Structure formats: structure tokens, C-alpha cells
Amino acid sequence: MTLVVQKYGGSSVADAECVQRVARRVAAAREAGHDVVVVVSAMGDTTDELIDLAGRITSGPAGRELDMLLTAGERISMALLAMAVTELGHHATSFTGSQAGLVTDAAHGRARIVEVAPARIRTALAAGSVVIVAGFQGMAQDTQDVTTLGRGGSDTTAVALAAALGADLCEIYTDVDGVFTADPRIVPTARLMPAVSHEEMLELAAHGAKVLHSRCVEFARRYGVPLRVRSSFADDVGDDPLTGRGGTRITSTTEGRTDHAMEDPLISGIAHDRSQAKITVVGIPDKPGAAAAVFTALAGAGCDVDMIVQNVSAEATGCTDISFTLPASAAKSALDALKGVEESSGFLGLRHDDRVGKLSVVGAGMRAHPGVSATLFSALAETGVNIQMISTSEIRISVVVHVDDLEAAVGAAHTAFGLDSEQIEAVVYGGTGR
Amino acid sequence: MTLVVQKYGGSSVADAECVQRVARRVAAAREAGHDVVVVVSAMGDTTDELIDLAGRITSGPAGRELDMLLTAGERISMALLAMAVTELGHHATSFTGSQAGLVTDAAHGRARIVEVAPARIRTALAAGSVVIVAGFQGMAQDTQDVTTLGRGGSDTTAVALAAALGADLCEIYTDVDGVFTADPRIVPTARLMPAVSHEEMLELAAHGAKVLHSRCVEFARRYGVPLRVRSSFADDVGDDPLTGRGGTRITSTTEGRTDHAMEDPLISGIAHDRSQAKITVVGIPDKPGAAAAVFTALAGAGCDVDMIVQNVSAEATGCTDISFTLPASAAKSALDALKGVEESSGFLGLRHDDRVGKLSVVGAGMRAHPGVSATLFSALAETGVNIQMISTSEIRISVVVHVDDLEAAVGAAHTAFGLDSEQIEAVVYGGTGR
Fold first, then answer.
1. What are the E-state strand segments in B152-275?
2. Cβ-based contacts of A79 with chain B (< 8 Å)
3. Which reactions appear under catalytic activity for this entry (chains A, B) (predicted)?
4. Does the ipTM surpass 0.90?
5. Cβ A79–B99 below 8 Å, yes or no?
6. What is the CATH number of the domain that holds A105?
7. Number of structural domains, chain B?
8. Burial of A134 by CB count in 10 Å (0-12 exposed, 13-18 middle, 19+ buried)?
9. How many residue pairs bridge chain A and chain B with CB atoms within 8 Å of each other?
């Protein structure tokens, strides 16, 4: 027996009709002969409404109580989905995170999964039941309190269950068709990627592609869980999860690309991110320990720094500038933390710029092709886009530009790397039948 | 340390402001020096809305899934109340029915409490926390599935916890001031009873008084839990639960009536019930086994029969008529069940009347006063009300009348037993300070 884990997000179960649509998809997978475990988010805006309610009562809810409140949303959607699947003639059983064996640490609001002990799920599957599990939640190992997993929590629940149960596939259903070579809203010629590696997807997700959260991809990579991202609104309901070709497959190698392996592109896709800010520490002494003081202060304030660039020191003053990017929402606490070490670390001032955007070019093919940066920089130069910062990994190049230049930069890079659909549409779509 | 259990119904926590009002009451009880356990229902119409949602998906939801769905409501209200109490400077911890140790049987939708094992509550109380518990829910002993307790479930949760924890008092907060001598909407001279015995309250609740469910009163009587019914909307927030005098106290004796013991009334109150129907089995052979066949059929259909009257048999035919009352909602299945035994039990026909009302006069003083029926029947006769059926218990007389006569009958009985407030207001209100 093959086992498929499917995850449906809040927009996929926004109302009773949506729940019924999802149930038809679940029933089809069951009828195709698979065991099916479904992970479901809270309906539509339920979670936001619950957060609003809490906000009317207190500005600082205890994490334990906020988690208890928010997990009510998934209880509602999972019970409704179980009813809808039953209505289609299949036995269905719903489980909370705690009942499903999602054991976490006690960090309320951002709990980490410690262990998955899905005994009740295995029993229900063996009895022929479809299993519906509440996403985003677990139970703390020590306190037995209900926890939530924080951002990307439902996707991560699905991947963790798929890993623990040895699933053949974990499908992440969402409201878009899959992973594109760039955001189709700003690059109309962007095309659906039929397949991408875990590594590439991780870089795309970490640098702004919103279709999957990097935490879920990281988990999938570590445990070798094959993923597939597809739309719950598409008309491919009867499509067998294991052999169907819609959406984007994310696998440990690029094996899924057999249909166009000969033309494996250098670059898989372009991600962009408008949510960051840039802070520059001006005139900091270029000597051992100065930069450490700055970043120790930031770490102490819980700031998640992304790119860091240190200028060449000015010989006359022995001072340099250090620029870094971080989520714009963390900029205020970062600036406060830095002001606290202004005297001890001896820098002259701080500059803060939240009008920045980040563009990232990702592709496993980059490893063997040294010319990628040159192609990117030329394309941006021809478009008149000034580069403020650069950082690279083995399979990614990221640049920070003025936010007003971001869309033009993404479009130029997409064209420069041959990703536009006019150029290779025949190859890609010929294979997928979509 | 004294322990007070408080229960707040859905209308008491209908929105964020209501939750804050309840929190002030909880905080006041804590500040008066008591340990406090709070049982809370779902907010306002939440439960009805969830049932609606399920109805849009299926006409016959599995009990297990419906219970999972409905228990989400109390999770929301309990977490919000815990936040609101914390906001007032007291530590508060919320527990689901399962976490609170409410162990039930597996009868989804109408589970019975099997055991209360409140270890986590005791630990939280010992740590100085106010404890908030979700009403209406528990966990099935064998399956570990979430269950709901059905009608009166939140009141019953409160009484069960009070019994298990050895509470000094269980307060049931509602949207009326307490238990009245009759429904003030139909008897404007009805007055608040400062005290009533468990037995009397049980009769009143079982026969139409809606302020408490008979299941909760029965539980309180069995375990000797002192109850107090009061309004969450009254302005007596600072009133100490144990010594305050508002609302109605329900105790195992009438000890709470010390302030007017000398004038202990013969009759405590008048209940009425419009929700019943009367069915008459016409011309049934007056021989052993015939009546048994009828009531066996009714029991098989799950019909909860209340009053039963059998006429004197007509000598000519050897046949009699049997009339009984039952909840109007069960009349159809009762009629169907009876038609199934029409031939075997040999009756001639069925009559169904849903235009009936029941009036019940309740009072512990009745035991020593044989004249009560005479007073009631005279009062009804003077008002021109015809009595259709009569039944009695040790401390109650009930009569069935035409539904159009019901209000006049309740008013006449209230006056005849000296319950009108003009007559005894000074004695009662002089004592309670309300």
C-alpha cells in the first residue's frame, strides 16, 4: 500500500463549499488506491479573527493561552473535513496535533517538533480510515500543554508526518499552481517549474518565494521526503498523486526532470523579497572585536540578520562601514540594540533604509558555470539598476537593490537566464500536459 | 483555603466585553481569598454556528467528529477568559475537559461522566493559579476521544468538579437574577427565592424551570454540592461568594432560609412547561400485558414518557384509554412506534394533542400539608381552567391543561399559595438586601 500525505491551507478550506472540494480530492486519492493522511489549516481568516479577539482583551497574552485559543481553528476545519469525506462514502477520523503524536518543545507560538509518535494514525490507517490531522499544533513534551508551531507550521506538520510514516509523497495544496520561475504577478512570462531540488527550493523559499516555507523544505530535505506543490482549485481532481504531472515536484535530486533533462537550465528560478530593511553601521573601528560587538548585540535582541557586507577600511581613519539586511519588522529593535553599544564599540552613527528589495537567482547548475554573476550583473546594468549589496551561496546569488528597481531587476534577470516562457515553453509544457 | 467553582454560560461570555466583565467577577472572588475554578461555555451563538456549518456539509455527522467540532467553542472562550483574568493581575491557567480530568463514557453528544480526576487542576490551584475549564466536554475512557456531555453539560461539569474538588460552593452564573417563584415573564408578581432545597429545585427543573438543568441539580443533590444561581450582569461584583446574599442558594436542606425560617412557605414555586405533547391510546384491552406492550414499544423508540394516566376500564367493552405526555419533539417517533404494535396490543386508535401545557406546584412543605391539591384545584376551577391530567410526587403536584389556559393557571396558583410579592415582599427582601 502506498501512502500519500496531503496538506491543505486556509484558503483551500475557507468555507463549506471549499471543504467539500477538498473532500473530493481526498476521496479521489483514496479511490486511486492510496492510504491518505490529510493535514489541514484553520478555515480562511479564522486564525486572524482569533488573534483579533485576543487583542481586544490583552496586549500581551500568555503564550500557553494564545496557543490554546489558536488551535481551536484547526479543530473546526479538521472535523468538518472528516464529515465531508465521510459524506463521500469513505471512513474518516480526525486527530488533533496531540492525538496525532506531534510532540514538541514548550516554546509556545514557535514550538519545534521533538518527536512524531503517530500510533493512533497508524491504527486508523490500518482500519481503512482516511486520517485528518490538525496542522500547526502539537503537545509539549514536559508540560503536556498545547503548542503551536509558528510560521510554516502546517506545512511542517505535513512533512514531519510524511517522514515519520514513510510516506511515498507529501502534497502541499495551495491557491497557486506550483512553483514558478519568478512571481507571475511581476513577471508575466514566468513559467511553472515541473521539478526542482530540495536545495534549490530551500534557497528560493528562504529568499522570498512564498509558496513554501523554508522550514518545511528544510525538514523535507533532511528526511528525504518527496514533495509536490499543487493547487486545490485546479480541475485535476482525479489525477493520481504519485503519477500525475501537475504542480511542482520537489525531490532530493532533479530526477523528476526526466522529460527535459537534456536542457536542464542553468538557473531554476528568481525569488524576490520586499520585506527586508538595510542598516549601516557607519565609521566603526576596523579592529578585532568591533564587528563582533555589533552582531553580539543584534543576536541578544533576537534579530535575524541576513546579508552582511563590510567595506574596505579607509586608511586615513582606520574605520569602516558595515551594512546588513534583516526583516523590516525587526529594524526598530535592532537599532535600539545597536544604540546600546554605540559607545563601547566606538562607531560613529547608524543609517536605516527600508526602501530596499532583494533579488535572488537560484540554480543547482550554477555550480559548474562560473559566468552566472557576470550575466546577472550585466543584465541589471543594462536595465539601469544599481546594486547595493551582493551575497552568494553555492547555488544562489542575491543582490540588494532600491525597492523601486526590484520588479525591473527580476524581469531582466528572468530574461537574461532564458527563463521566459516564449523561449522554452514547448519543451516544458510538452512534457507536463498542462 | 476555601474553594469556589463558578460557571458562566454562553450569554455571559458573548463578546470581548462580556469576557472582561466575567474576569472582574473571577478576580473579585480570588481577591476575597478563595481558590477559584471557573467553568465556561462557548461564546454566545458559537455552538449553533458550528452546528450550522456541519449541516452545510452533512445531514448525519459522525458523533465523534461533531463532538470534536463543537468543543472548539469552549477552547476559544476559556483561553480568552484566562487572558482577561491575567490582564487583571492574577495568574490563570485554562484546561480542556480532557486536561481537567473529565472522563466520560463514549456516547458522543450525550456522554455521561464516569470519573473526575482533576490532578492538573489541583496542581495549578496549589501554585496559586485561577483555573479555567472548558464546560460541556470530556474524554472517553476507552477510546481517548473527545466527547460532549449534551444538554446541561456545562452546569454538570461545574457541579462534578465542585464535588471532586470538595468545593465550598458552586455558583451558576446566568442572565437572570436567580430562581423565581414562577416565570416573571408570565407572573409579574413572582419573586426571587433566596433559597430552595436540592429536592425542590430538581422538581422545578424537571418540570419546566429553565434556569438550571435537572441533570446538574441531580448531580448536586447526590454529592451534596451547595449551589448558588446568580446573574453575571448584576452589579454585585465585589460580593463574597460564600457570604453574599444575592441570587438563589440551593442546598441539601433549607438551611439557607434562616432569615425567614419562621415563615417557611408551604410552596416554593410554580414551574410550567409548554414543550410537551399528550398522546392517548384509545380502547386498549384492560388486561395484563397490554399496557406493557405500549410502553415497551415507546422505550424501544427512545421516547422519554413523563406523566401517565390510565382511565377506569369500561365494563361493557373491557377496554380502557391510556394517556401520557412526552416531549413534543418525540411525538412523531412515539406515534410511529405505537402504530407498529397496534395489531399485537389490540388498541383501537391513537389521539395526539400538542396544545397542552403542564403546571407544577413544588414545595417541601407539602409533605406535612395534605390540603395542597385541594387549594390548587379550587384555584384552577375558580379561574375556569379544566384539568386534563394529574400526577404527584412527595413534594410536587403537576396538572396538564390546555396550553391557552396555562398562563392564567400559573397566575392563579401563584396567588392561591401566597407567593405574590405584594404579600410577602417585606419578609423576603428585608433579608436579602436586594
1. 169-174, 195-197, 227-231, 248-251, 269-273
2. 54, 65-66, 68-69, 72
3. L-aspartate + ATP = 4-phospho-L-aspartate + ADP
4. no
5. no
6. 3.40.1160.10
7. 2
8. buried
9. 102
